[in-house]
Amino acid sequence: MKKILDSILKNNRLTKTEAVELFLNTPWTEMVQAAHQKRIQLNGEKYASYTVFKTLNYTNICKINCNYCGFKCSEDSKDAFALSLQDMEEAAKDCQANSINQVLFQGGVNPNLTLDYYLECLNILNKKYNLYVRGFSPVEFIEFSKIFNIKIPKLINKFKTAGLCSVPGSSAEIMTPEMRELLSPHKPSAELWCDTMQAVADAGLQSSASMIIGSNETIADIVQHLEYIRNLQCKTGHINSFILWTWQKQTDLPVRHVSGVEYFKTLAFCRLYLDNIKHIEVSVLGLGKEIGEIALNCGANDISSVVINERVLNSKGLTTVQEAEEFIKHAGYIPLLRDFNYRLTQ
To answer: Residue 202 and residue 148: Cα distance in Å, rounded?
Structure first.
């Protein structure tokens, strides 16, 4: 395995066959050592970055019905909500009052909301209050396209004109047919997800990518998922970063415990495989400070947090800039504040 690892560090691309062999036969300590060297090659050894944003979930009503989701609600649920335009105004004012200039704008696929609603929300947040809006996801664009009978590229451009600034590469989970069937059978195929992300790139919008482990995935599933993302990046170059999540128990869907060792090895493996994506994020929000600190030496160079108003996940993250900077310093790095597109802001 040393030969394969040395080859990767000489900037040779890992093949799918080599990747499976590498993952199955490499001790996790050797994997993370190689990934840390790759992190240094791409991002240096002194710094770790973070960002600050507020999550704005505009509705929890959703018709997709993914098997893992505890956030979604039916229209008749007492917990169902859809934010009004006045709510958007209040949220934007709150961001300004607290010196927050970025929002992550996501929700369920609510068939009762109109196209004008989304465009006006973006207009309020971006045009009126000058907030950077990272919003929606490929699955939302795909479903909106059906609901509003507008082709996806035209729809994305409408959203961009209204104030959408970038798009998170979420709603992916693990994109093999077997895992889609288990986790989210009503979500689009990997091919349609990638086509939608291509349309995002064609509109001039930057993005991210992700993967979630902790169900029934195999190493073959993981490799195929990463291959989709690496190929997409080869075509578009619009993916700034990749983040590895683990499942949180929200429904009756079986979720297995992902040990620290498994997470570190998989994170390192992602760093080695995704040779054309510069930044790897660790979710301190989802995994906690202890895992996050070690992960910065396993291939990751960013902690993502500070996340404000998280409602989908049980947050274990950092809530202030001071916390984030102290955390990064304690891990042995110099903190860098960046925006969603990895532009430094200090």
So the answer is: 21
Six-digit token string for 230: 């690496």
Among residues 104, 57, 74, the alpha carbon closest in space to that of 210 is found at: 104
Say which residues have a Cβ less than 8 Å from residue 142's Cβ, sequence separation at least 6. 152, 188, 192, 196
Inform me whether the pLDDT recorded for 307 exceeds 80: no
Q: How far apart are CA 192 and CA 84, in angstroms?
A: 31
- For the chain, give the longest Cα–Cα distance: 60
Domain-by-domain residue ranges, the chain?
Answer: 14-337
Quick: pLDDT tens for 77-96: 888 889 999 999 999 999 99
Q: Which backbone phi and psi does 129 adopt, to 5 degrees?
A: -115, 5
CA distance 171 to 177: 14
> What's domain 14-337's architecture?
Alpha-Beta Barrel (3.20)
Per-residue pLDDT for 120 more than 90? yes
Output the pLDDT for position 185.
86
Question: 300 near 39, Cβ under 8 Å?
Answer: yes
